[in-house]
Glycosyl hydrolase
Amino acid sequence: MAAVLLAVPGCSPADMDASGHGGSRAARPGSGTPTMRGFALPSWYRTDYDSPAAPRYLRDIRATGARWVTFTPTWYQNRVTDTALHTTEETASDASLRRIVGRAHAAGLKVMIKPHVDLPGDADRAGIRPRDRAAWFAAYRRFITHYARLAADTRTEQFSVGTELAGVSGDTGAWRKVIEAVRDHYDGPLTYAANYDEYQHIHFWKDLDLIGIDAYWPLSDRPTSDSARLSRAWVPIGKRLAAYSARQSRRILFTEAGYVSQRGTTTAPYSWTVSTHPANAEQAAAYRALLDSFEGRAWWAGVCWWMWDDWPGSGETPARLAYTPHGKPAEEVLRREWAH
């Protein structure tokens, strides 16, 4: 889940081609942050990260060519107006999080910890608007610095200070205090995971090392498995992102991107329930289009795909319809694209 007029670290305005992409496709890392090829492995229960499936999941993620994995410990608040955050049985235990970071490192994967705040049921965290913002931010600083210390202790390579909190992300001064508090405990690169319709309203990017975007842009007005058509849809988005990266002097990381294997996923990538009809070809085309559009661009810091397999017994969406590409054509797209 970061001015001089500089297009991107290592990329001048002249390097941008007509599509808004870097003229050279050679990766030129900026700000000391490696390009991410990763997967999110979220937890939905206290002991998920201690599941017997965990070592296999990490090996399978690594086998796609991924080099990163993101873990998402989650705290909750009961109502959008509340000022208190708390753990539940759905919060990964600290001990399990420490252990899975160690397992990921042993498997050859770098780690990002991306703590989430959620609401009960299907309520959107973007709707959080606490009645007492000062009290909420004080609680939030306690929450996020808890994980910043854990990230430092486990030598986690990257950390997100927040995810999709559009209802409060306009409080720039409060977020700068959050970031300062995190940096008191953690020395690695920092980002914030803004929703695709939120990132332009964030005014603290230059306090961070990377711009993070959860990249769920609709790419089509109807279901399609035409990857060339989807790539064309990315062109104007890419132009805007390249220009935004230049203005902020920060690379852009897709902190999340993903597509369910359901008919119509390219029309609403953020939806878990577009339809009940499997569409592996549409999911694979969407994977291919995103990588074709952004891999190697100097201003692009990579992607963390949402998501790998659900934990055994915990998935509400059948695997054949879910975000996971595991065992589907989209996984083969990754294996080909990330083989080099």
The longest strand covers residues 158-163. The two ends are 26 Å apart (CA to CA). The beta strands are 36-40, 68-71, 74-76, 110-113, 116-118, 158-163, 190-195, 211-214, 252-257, 300-305.
